[in-house]
Amino acid sequence: MVKSVLSERKTFHPSELERRELPPAAGAAVRTLANEIAVTVGPSRAIATTLGDPELLEHIETRYTELPEDVHHAMRAPATAAGVTVIGRLPLGDTELGQTPMDWRQAAAWAGEPGRTSSSFALDITMLLLARCAGEPFGWQGQQGGRLVNNIVPTPGHEREQSGASSTALLSPHTEDAFHPLRANLLMLGCLRNPDLVGTTVSSVRRVELTAAQRDRLSRRELPILPDVSYGTGFPNQPSPPVATLGRDQGQLTLRFDPAYTPLDDAGPEFRSAYDHLAEELERVCITAALAPGELLLVDNDVVVHGRVPFTPRYNGTDRWLKRVNIRLAQRHRDASEAAETGYGQRVVAPFHTIRGNRR
Ligand SMILES: [Fe+2]
Fold first, then answer.
1. How close is the Cα of 234 to the center of ligand 1, in Å?
2. How remote is the CA of residue 177 from the centroid of ligand 1, in Å?
């Protein structure tokens, strides 16, 4: 069971967030290029289902370099110990979105409907262009059908689960895809709609206070982390290797943390006490960002855990709607011991890696 979760909070701490302004001309340039590509390739159901169409990806790979230097500069990894950056903002009007879909399947289907008046497909391309400026966008075969851009919307029947489809439950702080050795280095969340200013919570391991003994204990491989419910169920029956909660990259602390999917009751008392202390510290240093439409949140997934405060879904087409992209950074290093992990059979969809490989 989850013992350490954030208490509900709706306090915002904008001054603690690193903010980067995207000049209006730069934001407009991204949307114009994305619209151009959207008109050239589609939309079609086949392309919008996964966004893995080779022609679409080729356009993104060849043209993201044309974007203004301001865009590339804004999309670099978060630069402060907080490990998170708000980038504002893309030009975006509410009426161009159409209705918020009810789930990720509907979002993908609607994005591929040529007659539907919604910029969802062009915004998928916008997100891929921006993510490609930051690093290498990728998806997961087992998540949202392998789509390279995930849609995060509250979904009927999933209100209380620990996944992005939930709403009334607090989404407790976690590393994205903590169970997998190929988890993202950066997460990009693009806000399309957030009428109730629902906050995304972020806590950096580089701001917590731990004793040397606690650090040492949490750096040992003690417990496994299982895949979250968005990948399905049945994983507790698979072999599950223990992983380290804390790591280091270039001498600085990194974090791999997902208490909702960690069998904490199996831990020894010393580990459990250190883990609980870490959870309390992550709560202490937690900051909340309520994204506005057109704003992007870049989250350093090696440094920061993220969550979301509870909210009441509307289910009337005006709900909170985010687009999410996983990003790999070539310069990042993870502990060598992770290379032996199988990731519970979950496979990445990494077409940009292949494109770049073919060009070398
Ligand atoms: Fe998440």
1. 20
2. 8
Mean pLDDT value of segment 24-51: 93
Q: How far is the CA of 179 from the centre of ligand 1 (A)?
A: 12
Distance 166 CA to ligand 1 centre (A): 11
pLDDT 10s digits, 110-131: 999 877 878 999 999 999 999 9
Ligand 1 centroid distance, CA of 260 (Å): 12
Query: In which band, very low, low, confident or very high, does the pLDDT at 18 lie, cut at 50, 70 and 90?
Result: very high
How many whole angstroms from 176 Cα to the centroid of ligand 1? 5
Does 209 have pLDDT greater than 50? yes
**pLDDT band with cut points at 50, 70 and 90 for residue 228:** confident
**How far is the centre of ligand 1, averaged over its atoms, from the C-alpha of 347 (Å)?**
18
Q: How far is the CA of 203 from the centre of ligand 1 (A)?
A: 13
Helix H, strand E, coil C: the string for the chain is CCCCCCCCCCCCCHHHCEEEECCHHHHHHHHHHHHHHHHHHCCCHHHHHHCCCHHHHHHHHHHHHHCCHHHHHHCCCCCCCCCEEEEECCCCCHHHHCCCCCCHHHHHHHHCCCCCCCCHHHHHHHHHHHHHHHCEEEEECCCHHHCCCEEECCCCCCCCCCCCCCCCCCEEEECCCCCCCCCCCEEEEEEEECCCCCEEEEEEHHHCCCCHHHHHHHCCEEECCCCCHHHCCCHHHCCCCCEECEEEECCEEEECCCHHHCCHHHCCHHHHHHHHHHHHHHHHCCEEEECCCCCEEEEECCCEEEEECCCCCCCCCCCCEEEEEEEECCCCCCCHHHHHCCHHHCCEECHHHHHHHHHC
Ligand 1 centroid from CA 115, angstroms: 32
Average pLDDT over residues 326-352: 91
Which pLDDT score is estimated for 360?
Answer: 58
